[in-house]
Amino acid sequence: MDRILYTAMSGAKQTMDQQSVVSHNLANVDTAGFRTQLHAMRAVPVQGEAIHATRVSVAASTPGSDFSPGNMTTTGRELDVAVQGKGWIAVQAQDGTEAYTRRGDLQVDGDGILLITGKPVIGDGGPIIVPLGAELSVGTDGTLSAIAEGQGPEALVDVGRIKLVDPGEAGLVRGDDGLFRAAPNAEGEGVALPQAEEMRLVSGVLEGSNVSAIDAMVSMIDVARRYEMQMKVISTADENAQRANNLLSMQG
After folding, report:
1. pLDDT digits (tens, 9 = 90+) for 4-36
2. Helix (H) or strand (E) holding 230
3. Which of 18, 32, 240, 249 has the least C-beta neighbours within 10 A?
4. Spatial separation of the C-alpha atoms in residues 162 and 177, rounded to whole Å
5. How many CB atoms are located within 10 Å of the residue 45 CB?
């Protein structure tokens, strides 16, 4: 009787985790550059000293992310950029490491540091700093040009170049902070990808999330029903166990 409980209880736990992933995807349906997080479940034998080959539990696996491109939206804002092809924008994560994003709504803080969602954008020599109050424009190769406040077009100067990378076949791994990083090397250390000269940006355009709201809603309903089914299995197994105990306790 306990065989079914291993599967039903572990399945219910992993179904709740899957619901969190689906909810997270749905919450980011309008987040620029967001990549859908994937989630899958598989059956694994129960491990332990008193191992039973007939006992199977459910384990979650996250095969990765959906890297298909999102829809492009024209904004007309000079500091909104979208990466063409399979390129990514390099930013500095909270821990100081280099990470990558497809989000392109650039901002400039009070110190002149170019940011994406609060993360400094990396250039040729580290975080890019631009003149405060300057009129900025972004070239197709990621070059930032600035015209100082009160100056004419003849005063246009280059102030940095956004680092664009191409992860290639190795791909990227999503971190807990939502940013992506290159897969660790043989020593388990993170590596920074080189500048990809062939990558290009489009200015005045933002790439949207690749989450399908309809698919996410369908998945949410499916996961909820699966959880109800697993709880019903647990309840049924408990009722059967009680009936079996009643039969065993009968006298005569």
Report:
1. 776 777 778 888 888 888 999 999 999 999 999
2. helix 213-248
3. 249
4. 21
5. 13
CA atoms within 13 A on the CB side of 199: 24
Residues 6+ away with beta carbon under 8 Å from 64: 38, 171, 173, 174
Surface-to-core class of residue 225, CB atoms within 10 Å of its CB (0-12 exposed, 13-18 middle, 19+ buried):
exposed
How many angstroms separate the CA atoms of 69 and 32, rounded? 11
**pTM metric for this prediction:** 0.81
| Amino acid at site 30 | D
Q: Phi, psi at residue 6, to the nearest 5°?
A: -55, -50
Contact in structure between 40 and 60 (CB atoms under 8 Å): yes
Structure tokens at 154: 């003849």
Which secondary structure element, helix H or strand E, spans residue 98, and what is its range? strand 98-101
CA dihedral of residues 215, 219, 225, 229 (deg, nearest 10): 140
Pairing of strands 40-45, 126-127: unpaired
Nearest residue to 29 (alpha-carbon basis) of 179, 210, 180, 175? 210
Burial class of residue 235 (count of CB atoms within 10 Å of its CB; 0-12, 13-18, 19+): exposed
Model confidence pLDDT, tens digit, residues 133-154: 889 999 999 999 999 887 888 8
Instruction: Enumerate the β-bridge partners of residue 144.
Output: 138, 160
